[in-house]
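yo

u said u wanted the structure for the complex thing, so here. seqs first:
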Amino acid sequence: MTQYKITFAPSFKEVACKEGKTILEAAREAGVYLDSYCAGKGKCGKCRVRIIDGTVSPVTNNESELVRTTDREQGYRLACMTKIFGDVTVLIPGETVFKVESGKKVFAGRSRTVHPAVKSYPVNLTKEKTARDGYFEKITGFLASQYGLRNLSADISVIRKFSGVIKDDENTITAFVHMGKEIIDVRPGLDERVFGIALDVGTTTLAFYLCDLRNGNVIATASITNPQVLSARTSCPESVIPLTIQSRASKRCRRN
Ligand code: FES
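structre next:
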């Protein structure tokens, strides 16, 4: 079958696509994730794109309902309804490309008590740094005496960092300990910041939360449309649906 080149502005990502594929499918293959709330059924109107150049399928009834005539005259189409029949250049409007936003998914109220797997500990080496070797014993000794962390281990790659972070003019380093058992990193000076990412895998949205593990504060959030929604639209291939949501997706397929 004939292949055509699809170019997505403004990133100018390109992908080769078989004739008859939709713009939404091509976008997904190019790694350009469009908002597609109805999973490509032509019902939500979220996947609006503007055809700048090229040959595509005629306007469908769904598009006539969801895209205003004046917009259609400017080349606006629904990516999930528009099939490719030649080399095409597509402009992705700002409201259509996947969102980095804080409002789409929010945390429910919850306890502020956090128990992170990784904690940071200041280590004062005032008396210890005169000798240039034996840092592992000195650091683990300090962590045991000051914080009760005993029998700590550390990977050789972390141990090699010790001499690099311990400066002659700096009394303190910060050690990061995983589950109270292993030193997984050290930083020079007092730098107790430690972050984690929470990932919420939903059927239509993937949401990411960058959290300060010291207090549970959410520093930044981002969400994108789950790429699986395009696959679920036509055949519901369970092999590509993560196990955590497989049962919900299966029910949806039976209903459809
Ligand atoms: S109209 Fe909903 S994804 Fe295209």
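The radius of gyration is 26 Å. The chain is about 25% helix and 30% strand.
cya
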